[in-house]
Design brief:
Strand order of the largest sheet: 7-6-10-8-9
Largest sheet: 5 strands, mixed
Shape: elongated
Strand content: 25-35%
Structural class: alpha+beta
Distance between the termini: 32 Å
Number of strands: 10
Helix content: 10-25%
Order of helices and strands: HHEEEEHEEEHEEE
């Protein structure tokens, strides 16, 4: 009997892909409220307003190095920082020999896109919209193909290679930069 139990447990473990089966409690609550503590990433656009300095004010895209390039002042690290962190970094850079006491406001002008691929009709890059849910992202990509496994999707968040298996249907909110893969069913 113990050998049979061991065999069954070993067989089940071999079938596991090491990913979680559904969203954790924290993942299921991710969404619009997280945009308040949102961390800027590559591809986001930020709008800077520097009081009294029209030439420095404008919309800047976070480049591939995670920086925004300011005229004359050079590049300022933005990726991984929240809005207040970006503002503080810009103020530090401008205070370093450019302006005496710069007054700066920062806001997100455009979020980085989401990506939906795999067994969807028209996969690709899509603009992020606040309030988009997983099921909405799949609909924007044309819906499932006939080969799609509609039981789960594979989600990569924050540009990491860490994948999470999320059970479907699911009302989890999509975040900027999310990579959603719909797998193929095997039977």
């Amino acid at each position: 009997m113990p050998a049979l139990v061991f065999t069954v447990v070993a067989a089940l473990a071999a079938c596991s892909d090491g990913r979680s089966v559904g969203p954790s409690l924290a993942e299921s609550r991710v969404g619009a409220s997280d945009l308040r503590t949102y961390r800027v990433g590559i591809g986001d656009k930020v709008r800077l307003n520097v009081f009294g300095e029209a030439d420095l004010s404008g919309t800047y895209e976070v480049n591939g190095n995670g920086n925004i390039a300011l005229p004359l002042a050079g590049e300022v690290k933005a990726a991984g920082l929240d809005i207040d962190g970006v503002r503080a970094a810009v103020v530090r850079r401008l205070s370093d020999g450019y302006l005496k006491s710069p007054r700066v406001t920062v806001e997100i002008a455009g979020y980085r896109p989401i990506y939906v691929h795999g067994e969807v009709r028209t996969g690709g890059e899509f603009p992020f919209k606040v309030g988009t849910r997983l099921r909405d992202a799949i609909a924007v990509a044309g819906g499932y193909t006939y080969r799609a496994n509609q039981g789960y999707v594979i989600l990569s968040r924050d540009g990491t290679s860490r994948e999470t298996r999320v059970a479907m249907p699911n009302d989890m909110l999509v975040m900027p930069g999310d990579n959603i893969r719909v797998p193929e069913r095997f039977f």
